[in-house]
Specification:
The chain is an alpha/beta fold. The chain has 13 helices and 13 strands. Strands 2-8-7-6-5-3-4 form a 7-stranded mixed sheet, sandwiched between helices. Strands 9-10-13-12 form a 4-stranded antiparallel sheet, with helices on one face. Strands 1-11 form a two-stranded parallel ribbon. Helix 8 links the parallel strand 5 and strand 6. 44% of the residues are buried.
């Protein structure tokens, strides 16, 4: 079944989320993805383990739950060493821990950062704030025009002189896919430069093989979106040798050195756990493991999910033919070629994107927007018959927004 997705069988696994509001059309799978039914038992198991083990639950979390999660992630991403994967409650915590290795008090100059102007808020806001203080100097490569973004990004990286190169696998405000990650990574000439791939819109959405760059690049991802596990299950792949002693460090990173006396040099492991923080809620990892097991039981791989979503996207755009208002919206699609590979959402430029989101919410269609960009995301549980209903309600919303208050 790896080459095909049986949508009815998959959909049956979402009975609780989809059955709560049967009339609601959730078309924001890129943002708040529904959780499969198996996550309820997993969430309960986290509670039961806490009740059964009390303080000793952490031995189980670190000895069983996290290693299973690491194995799942490593397999999905083609990584050879599950131990290089560190977990965290969110990717922002991991970004800050990475930055702590580069933005240091008393440095001769600012941390030099190469990125794009289309990064997700978690990084873009943080780096802009540090830029205000002069602790970082940022070069932002414009994301558009999309066709030559890979060449422009690789050329900028090849010029060197950067402490950090940070780029998204899938741009959050357009769905554009940076398909050849290796080309960017390999363009960086300085072996000491940190290279970070933000895979938050790529993990379990876009087929990804990190094997060619696993020794050189960090990779961020999480369970909140396409991994269908909700909050608290973020992770980072940590290439060996980079940042052996992160200054921003929690006590979990020192498990191997808890017997050290006061005043002694802080100890770190050499695997991904060197980036661990402190006490966190492990229930998200329970849910994430359950989702991965469920996918395995269905023999469902990322390639099949991606193919299903891409077919839905193409069909959705085709349904605009012959309808002037629909055609006008589709004409604003980013990137404009519907057949080009993209992430799991369609992005339309509309001056009333916020009003459209509100009008759709009033019609029980859940989407979202970023500035003037309306985003519609399909998931593995969507069917072709859902698309016409989305358009029917979107027709009403477009008419309402065009008509004004």
């Amino acid at each position: 079944m790896t080459g095909h997705l049986d949508v009815d069988r998959v959909r049956a696994g979402f009975s609780r989320f989809l059955g709560t509001h049967p009339h609601r059309l959730h078309v924001a799978a890129h943002s708040h993805h529904p959780w499969p039914d198996v996550t309820l038992d997993a969430h309960t198991q986290a509670w039961l383990d806490a009740a059964d083990r009390h303080d000793h639950k952490w031995a189980h979390v670190f000895g069983t739950v996290i290693p299973e999660f690491q194995e799942h992630v490593a397999r999905r991403l083609g990584l050879s060493d599950p131990g290089a994967i560190v977990v965290a409650p969110n990717t922002h915590e991991l970004v800050v821990r990475l930055l702590s290795c580069l933005v240091t008090p008393g440095a001769d100059g600012p941390c030099r950062v190469l990125t794009t102007d289309a990064e997700f808020h978690s990084f873009a806001r943080q780096i802009a704030r540090l830029e205000e203080d002069g602790t970082v100097a940022v070069e932002r490569v414009p994301a558009e025009p999309f066709p030559d973004l890979p060449d422009r990004l690789a050329a900028a990286a090849a010029r060197g002189g950067h402490d950090l190169v940070f780029v998204s696998q899938v741009l959050f405000d357009s769905g554009y896919v940076l398909a050849d990650l290796a080309a960017v990574v390999e363009a960086v000439p300085d072996a000491d430069t940190f290279v970070v791939i933000d895979g938050y819109h790529g993990y379990l959405a876009v087929p990804t093989d990190l094997a060619p760059i696993e020794a050189r690049a960090f990779y961020l991802g999480g369970g909140y979106k396409y991994a269908m596990a909700g909050e608290g299950a973020a992770f980072m792949h940590c290439p060996p040798g980079y940042a052996p002693r992160p200054p921003d460090t929690g006590w979990y990173a020192g498990f191997s050195a808890l017997t050290s006396g006061p005043g002694e040099r802080a100890g770190y492991a050499t695997d991904g756990s060197r980036f661990l923080g402190a006490t966190f809620d492990p229930s998200g990892l329970y849910r994430a493991n359950a989702v991965h097991r469920w996918l395995d039981d269905l023999d469902l791989e990322v390639a099949a999910i991606h193919a299903h979503v891409r077919a839905l996207q193409q069909r959705f755009v085709a349904l605009a033919d012959g309808h002037p208002a629909r055609e006008a919206l589709v004409a604003s699609l980013l990137p404009p070629d519907v057949d080009a590979d993209r992430g799991h959402f369609l992005t339309f430029v509309h001056p009333g994107a916020g009003a459209l989101e509100a009008a759709l919410a009033a019609r029980e269609v859940i989407v979202d927007h970023r500035r003037d960009r309306l985003r519609l995301g399909f998931g593995c549980y969507h069917r072709e018959q859902d698309l016409e209903e989305v358009w029917r309600r979107l027709d009403d919303a477009l008419a309402a927004v065009a008509g004004g208050p």
